[in-house]
Here is the input.
Amino acid sequence: MSSSDRTCCGVVEEARIRAHDRRAQKPQPWIVLKFAVGLTLALIAYTSYVYVTFCRDMIVKNENSLGSPTMGIVFLVVFSFLLFIVLWSYFAVVTTPPGYPAQFLEKTVLEQPLHPPPQQPATFDETRGISFELMTPAADPPPSNSVPMTPPAIPETTKQDKVSQSTFYYQGSSTPGEAHIIDVPADPESAHVPDPAPHLSHENFHDPSSDASSRMFARRPSTTPILVSEYRFCNKDKIIKPPRTHHCRACGTCVLKYDHHCPWVGHCVGAYNHKFFVNFVQWASILSFWMFATVLGLNIKSQTRSSTPAINPQHIVLLALTALFGLFCCLMFLTQMQLIMLNQTTVESLGFRSMQEREQDNLARMHRWYDCGAKKRTKQAWDKEWGRIGKEGNLWWLGSRRANWESVMGKNVWWWFLPVGRGLEDGVNFPTNPRFDKQGRWRRRREWPSDLQ
Here is the structure.
């Protein structure tokens, strides 16, 4: 832009964009990352003070007490036990880093072309959601269904991978800190890739019996070979990321088995602290509902007496805080429990949701809005051909919900409830679903191993 074309508003807007880009490149300051941790501890301290006072009034028979001394002692003992477990769990998740591969992987560099090809816009035919490269496996000599993680360097072309021998170039993606390699043809021995969708004329657009319509709106999983190491290169940390690793902009580094960045614990939830995070939200919801139920119940009961004491304003604040915090932790726990049983992280679940939404859109195009039976039969036909999206179509599905749960929470039942021990995963190696080919592409049911068909 020439100086004559620059306007005041344009200069301000350009400066704002540049400042935003600079901030996006830097991790958040330490004080910002840990501020919510202090806020959480302050919240726990205040609610604990109000509840202990509530129990003390009953124990010493204060005129404002809402129950008997025995009830006060029982409530205080239960509260003390729950508070101890909550603080223990919170200490474990805050002090345990999620796992940072940049600390133990060597840096590597991908050669960039002088004139990189233009970035292709995202289409509905690509079902990667928030980058499908987040879903990839492993290291060490693997069992039959595992894929080893290649060392942090661009590997030689092997017979097994059949990757193009041309120079690997990376293509910038819309997600900061990530890169996708171009010019990597698919393995000709792997699953068949459907032909491009035919042109759909107006006459057969809504005709369910039309072959063109069926081909146009057939299930089309991503054909990206996501197990090829070049698809896991992070141009921020300059490493080839282990499977399921993602770069967190808030922390400024890659995180093993990235689930999400949680400001309440001051860093990310990942491979090494995921279990402790589940323990924390589990016990925090129980403690919150215990405090809410006991304080609310006795206050309601006290209103039936002839000499009703005035409601303590701090009890109202306690009820509001515990209800809000308890509901939040309970929903978080239920969500995490569901995702663990499906062996999905929060980020990976967004990719599956994107594919499901695209299929719902296709069903709406294929059938009338009221033809629910036809939509159900079409979806059943897709599932019969490919399997279910979140299960057979999940690269990390271990075959059962129990196996998925134990991979994160461990085999010992006590470990499911206490912030001790660890899961069966090391954050780097992950067994893969045999319904996928060696490069990580979902295969049709007829191409699965015979014992799985």
